[in-house]
Design brief:
mainly alpha, two-stranded antiparallel ribbon, MerR_fam, Multidrug-efflux Transporter Regulator, Chain: A, Domain 2, transcription, 12 helices
Length: 246
């Protein structure tokens, strides 16, 4: 399909589709000779994924990172998106109910306490951590928190030095191939570090943690302090390591 046909089909403007192409988010092949963009069925599936993620509030940069991850699985993403959209719908239903009550209160039909006026708001929800807990269990998270709490200040400092050293080694490698022997050796050091100090990480959990490095901007921002693009590189290297060692 040509760009005009895709715009008509989806309701997305041609300018937006061109922008997605320019930033490398959705780049259809060019027809030989004319140079026109031609969208395949696969491109349309990718576009659908982009729109689902946008509806969930993902910025374009993060959508690009997630879609480009070697560990990305479309069916798994659809299941997660459905779950998050259902959660979003439930939150919206609660907000609508709160508005209806507030209108009734304003018109004198009911009385609301100050506490009831804010019961529909929830600023503590963290879908990424919750999803990780549901997929890979609470054990790894709880063991990590308990282990840190039981360390002395000097022990925590030494642990931080060791962790930063691994990050710096990986940062030096981030412009190369995440599948290279050197990169995989460095990511094994990270895998061993986590299993030594923070409980037991299965290969699937390790791969899932790498996915969170690019899906959750808090992880990305923290890791990329050692070098821009490090989170993406580590995510790819972790997925390759997990798949090769199963």
């Amino acid at each position: 399909m040509k760009v005009k046909e895709v715009a008509k089909l989806t309701g997305i403007s041609i300018r937006t589709l061109h922008h997605y192409d320019d930033i490398g988010l959705l780049s259809p092949k060019r027809k030989n000779g004319s140079g026109y963009r031609e969208y395949s069925d696969g491109d349309l599936e990718t576009l659908q994924q982009i729109l689902f993620f946008k509806e969930l509030g993902f910025p374009l940069k993060k959508i690009k990172d997630v879609l480009n991850s070697p560990s990305f699985d479309r069916r798994e993403a659809l299941k997660l998106q459905k779950k998050m959209l259902l959660e979003k719908r439930a939150r919206l239903d609660r907000m609508i109910g709160l508005i209806d009550q507030t209108i009734q209160h304003a018109e004198g039909e009911i009385q609301m306490t100050n506490k009831e006026k804010f019961e529909g708001f929830d600023f503590s929800h963290n879908p990424y951590e919750q999803e990780a807990r549901e997929r890979w269990g609470d054990q790894a998270f709880d063991q990590s928190n308990a282990k840190l709490a039981g360390m002395s200040e000097d022990q925590q400092k030494a642990l931080g030095v060791e962790m930063n050293g691994i990050y710096r080694t990986l940062a030096d490698l981030r412009h190369g191939s995440s599948a290279s022997e050197e990169s995989q050796s460095a990511i094994k050091a990270w895998y061993d570090f986590l299993n030594t100090h923070f409980g037991t990480y299965s290969l699937d959990a390790f791969k899932g943690l790498g996915q969170m490095y690019v899906a959750d901007e808090r992880f990305t921002k923290n890791i990329d302090r050692f070098g821009e693009g490090l989170a993406q590189f580590m995510s790819e290297a972790m997925a390759i390591f997990a798949d090769q060692n199963k």
